[in-house]
Design brief:
Chain lengths: 312, 290, 234
């Protein structure tokens, strides 16, 4: 019992790291490669989750659904919808200064949040969507969680390999050239906007995949799950802690920060009864302080970018 | 119909006062320190809760609780600056932005820990609004206080910026930080004053928002978007522009409820901001650098 | 007597070097002109005085004091004023406020300097309440120079004061520079219009690719055949 409990926790832990690992890899493509500041990660994560849930879910009363398409289609549509959203947002905002772009992405996230809450015909509003198909159900008695974890880890690995490949490609080198010196890149005849847009769209599509993975993992989603705290802030801390620009750092950051985040839950569960309602706030405080400490002491992260690989 | 619009314009001016007071600080810190401060909304929340502490919990009179809350918030802003931002000043402004994002959450966590996660009000009970035109135009006494105090604060700000040497140096630094350094302006001192102004006006904005609605730990964060929109609309580094921008955003948001669902008010601020960024990124009052 | 000595400096922005073993001397009450082709490091040489770049080797000495590592804000207080080539006025401040900012570090009454500046630039007196951002290029240059003079500097650094100005304004600015100098202020300036500038100069330096190429009294440099061939279209 003890062992199987531990095992099932490890499986849960691994699956969550895979979900967050996808988000940090995606953010790394946007921020680490190109220097595009996206503070609206939660929006793309949510859009991915809802897209796949709607496409694959059963007919339920009152909101869009009943297409019952296979899982594969769900993931594809999640990535596609996010890519299209990113294309629209990007065309509108990617020419802006980095800090203006950050403000604009907050705006997008806010609007998406409002849509999720208010457009009940589409998302069932604050009540959320249940009965999202859980794949591998019944494939092997008692092992569906394990199978899901293997699937999630494989998706993470594939995404990691893809991100590494594009990082080391001429395309990736151009992205870094733009990040380091936009004016020079422009002078070399690079279409800066187009390159930025490509990175933004790719990153957002990966965020969509992560959202779909999350939806099918939990089987239930509601606007609360996509609070900027969990879906934006934590991802940023992960990437900065791990080392932005470095894909291995991104995944490592996801693992380390998720461990600290989950660990804090255990510590805080031992707080006296009177403080238990504030448990979430203590965890928020902890991660906030952690971010500041990293920024002040090791802003390049645990695994810094290997710039010698870059070349110019 | 006309009265209905007028009513919304009045509500818009009340909301616009709150946004404008917040936007002045954002605009000044953006201009002088060079980064978009994502913790400004939570500074507002902190100010609102400080007033709650002094007024509702310690039962001090409001005329005393109000300046105390402004002072406490200004001090907190300076502490964060000296503890964190000062050490990051030589870094890319984006690092400061991310750090301010972290401070926003630290602040919100502290507020939740100290004052609890539930909504609060300064004083319970329903205020009887003043009625005009047979009740088709209403204004709560609190809203009148908000408008009047905002005017007083803005006049004080105006005198400070126009008449005092520090105020002029602050405008100069916001306008052109590098030239300010060349001129020998003590920019570290200007930065401290920027936080004094930005922090205390943020507190006032938070208190007014709490007075008009209620207090909760996310109240400032959710106003961040219209505040940024106002600062950008007025031109970064232009405190007067921020005031005009704030009032415009406030009024446009309220009047827009005639045409769209009130839930989507923030989307209006966002659209105005994006349009501004695309067509005139220097803002209504900003000039291009030569 | 030497007021400013740029002593054999090598440096630039961060790790990128722009200046190599640069050597310059500015004597008390002189006018010194720095000329050279685009990208020679003329403006950078000037910024080195003002603590605005990373100096790897060498020192900058002002009035017998080593100021190589001093902060920009501090250098302004030592009696050096600097007028950058661009973005050199506070656009959203009035002309008068711009001038007041120039006197920011002064504790004494600066109304005397204000009337001196207005005497030098009568145009500015008429426009004292106007925002600097609304002025013409030539008038902005006057505001920028006026702001620098308000600190009562011993040494005035001018980075291309006549760039982009009409011939009328150019002549005016050059004659004002002579007036400022004759009242006792030492001047070091970068100029594209090398011929006119060198005529004013006690001494000139010609930089090429971040190094000293020629130096000497202004009139001699104008006569120098190689210099003529290089810049003066001769």
């Amino acid at each position: 019992m003890e062992l199987s409990g531990l095992l099932s926790y490890a499986i849960y832990f691994g699956t969550m790291i895979s979900i967050y690992g996808l988000l940090t890899l995606a953010l790394n493509v946007q921020w680490g490669y190109t220097g595009t500041l996206n503070i609206g990660v939660a929006a793309f994560f949510a859009v991915g989750a809802y897209s796949s849930a709607i496409i694959t879910g059963p007919q339920a009363g009152g909101y869009l659904g009943g297409f019952g398409l296979p899982l594969f289609a769900g993931f594809l549509v999640a990535a596609l919808v996010c890519a299209i959203l990113a294309l629209g947002v990007g065309l509108l905002t990617l020419n802006l200064r980095t800090d203006y772009l950050a403000i604009a992405t907050i705006g997008i996230a806010e609007i998406i949040r409002l849509v999720l809450k208010n457009e009940a015909w589409l998302t069932n509003g604050v009540r959320g969507m249940g009965d999202i198909p859980r794949p591998f159900k019944g494939w092997a008695e008692g092992a569906d969680d394990l199978l899901f974890f293997i699937f999630a880890a494989a998706l993470l690995l594939a995404t990691y390999l893809f991100c590494e490949k594009i990082y080391n490609s001429p395309w990736g080198r151009t992205q870094r050239a733009i990040r380091e010196n936009e004016t020079a890149a422009r002078a070399m005849g690079k279409d800066v906007l187009s390159f930025r847009l490509q990175a933004f769209v790719i990153g957002s599509a990966i965020m969509g995949l992560s959202g779909a993975l999350y939806a099918h993992f939990t089987g239930f989603i509601s606007p609360e799950a996509f609070d900027p705290l969990f879906a934006t802030f934590l991802v940023w801390v992960m990437l900065i802690a791990g080392g932005s620009g470095n894909n291995r750092g991104a995944v490592l950051g996801a693992a380390v920060i998720w461990a600290i985040w989950s660990g804090s839950e255990i510590i805080i569960s031992r707080l006296p009864e009177t403080m238990i309602t504030q448990a979430g706030s203590f965890r928020l405080l902890l991660v906030g302080i952690l971010l500041e400490v990293i920024l002040l002491t090791r802003p390049e992260g645990i695994l810094p970018e290997r710039l010698d690989m870059g070349g110019k | 119909m006309l009265l209905e619009v007028l009513q919304l314009v009045i509500y818009g001016l009340v909301l616009g006062s709150v946004i404008a007071l917040g936007a002045i600080g954002v605009s000044l810190t953006f201009g002088i320190l060079g980064f978009a401060n994502f913790s400004h909304g939570d500074l507002m929340t902190f100010g609102a809760y400080c007033a709650f502490l002094f007024y509702s919990q310690l039962a001090l009179p409001f005329w005393l609780a109000f300046p105390l809350a402004l002072l406490a918030t200004a001090l907190l802003a300076i502490v964060f600056d000296q503890l964190i931002y000062r050490r990051l000043r030589s870094k890319d402004s984006v690092i400061l932005l991310i750090s301010s994002f972290g401070i926003a959450l630290i602040l919100r966590a502290l507020i939740q820990i100290i004052w609890g996660p539930d909504n609060q009000v300064y004083a319970s009970g329903i205020q009887m609004p003043y009625r005009f035109f047979d009740g088709s135009l209403r204004l709560k006494p609190d809203q009148l206080i908000i408008l009047a105090t905002t005017i007083v604060l803005m006049v004080a700000l105006h005198l400070f910026l126009q008449k005092s040497k520090t105020g002029k140096a602050m405008r100069a630094t916001a306008d052109n930080p590098e030239l300010a350094r060349l001129t020998g302006i003590n920019t570290e001192q200007v930065i401290i004053w920027t936080w004094v102004l930005g922090g205390s006006l943020a507190a006032a904005a938070g208190i007014f928002l709490g007075l008009d609605t209620r207090l909760h730990s996310g109240m400032g964060w959710f106003l961040l978007l219209p505040i940024f929109a106002a600062a950008i609309l007025g031109g970064i580094g232009h405190p007067y522009g921020a005031i005009v921008g704030g009032l415009i955003i406030g009024v446009v948001q309220e009047v827009s409820t005639l045409f769209i669902e009130p839930n989507y008010k923030p989307a209006i601020a966002f659209s105005v901001m994006v349009a501004m960024l695309i067509f005139k990124p220097t803002g209504l009052f900003g000039q291009k650098k030569t | 007597m030497t007021l400013l000595h740029i002593d054999n400096i090598t440096g630039g922005y961060g790790s990128v070097h722009i200046l190599y073993d640069l050597e310059m001397k500015v004597g008390q009450q002189e006018i010194v002109v720095i000329a050279g082709p685009n990208g020679a490091g003329k403006s950078t040489a000037m910024k080195s005085v003002f603590g605005m770049l990373t100096i790897e080797r060498g020192t900058v000495n002002f009035g017998g004091q080593d100021i190589t590592t001093h902060r920009t804000e501090h250098i302004a207080g030592l009696g050096i004023a600097y007028v950058p080539q661009v973005n050199n006025v506070f656009q959203s401040l009035t002309v008068e406020e711009n001038l007041e900012m120039g006197a920011y570090l002064r504790k004494d009454d600066f109304s005397g300097s204000l009337s001196q500046v207005f005497a030098l630039f009568p145009d500015l007196k008429k426009k004292r309440a106007q925002l600097a951002g609304t002025l013409s290029g030539g008038q902005r240059q006057m505001v920028a120079m006026g702001r620098a003079l308000m600190s009562g500097p011993q040494l005035l650094l001018l980075d291309e004061p006549t760039a982009g100005l009409s011939p009328k304004y150019m002549t005016q600015i050059f004659s004002i520079i002579r007036d400022i100098n004759s009242e006792g202020t030492t001047i070091m300036m970068v100029e594209q219009h090398a011929k006119q500038a060198l005529k004013l100069a006690d001494n000139g330096y010609i930089l090429v690719a971040g190094r000293n190429r020629h130096e000497g009294p202004g009139k001699e440099l104008i006569e120098d055949p190689e210099v003529q061939k290089m810049f003066l279209g001769g």
